[in-house]
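Quick review question:
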């Protein structure tokens, strides 16, 4: 897969479906990422953000037990931390401010997601 692409990068995972969260976290770790989470709620995601010394990227499930992840996304935008959305719904429902963000339909193609994260991290560090 994308082994080593995220070596040493801190990636926050926000996903409410336990098995998906575990699988995603494992695959990110195999790509070299230091995984924060997974967080299964907005509250836990904010706790992890507050405790993180540094964060390179995030993967955000749009819907967390009926709550939208957008407050986390807004915080990440303010901090200039790249992220991607994952969703089981139609990506066209994203608010206009997030239309330029990458959004992956579930089940997620992890190779593509990892490559997208790596490119976003590289671009953010060059900005």
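Suggested answer, residue by residue:
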């Amino acid at each position: 897969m994308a082994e080593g692409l995220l070596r040493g990068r801190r990636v926050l995972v926000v996903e409410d479906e336990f098995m998906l969260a575990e699988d995603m976290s494992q695959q990110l770790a195999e790509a070299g990422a230091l995984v924060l989470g997974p967080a299964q709620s907005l509250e836990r995601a904010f706790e992890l953000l507050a405790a993180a010394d540094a964060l390179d990227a995030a993967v955000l499930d749009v819907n967390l037990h009926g709550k939208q992840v957008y407050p986390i996304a807004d915080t990440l935008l303010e901090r200039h931390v790249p992220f991607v959305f994952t969703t089981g719904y139609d990506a066209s429902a994203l608010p206009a401010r997030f239309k330029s963000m990458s959004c992956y339909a579930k089940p997620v193609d992890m190779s593509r997601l990892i490559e997208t994260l790596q490119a976003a991290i590289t671009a953010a560090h060059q900005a």
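Why it works: The chain has a mean pLDDT of 93. The chain is about 40% helix and 20% strand.
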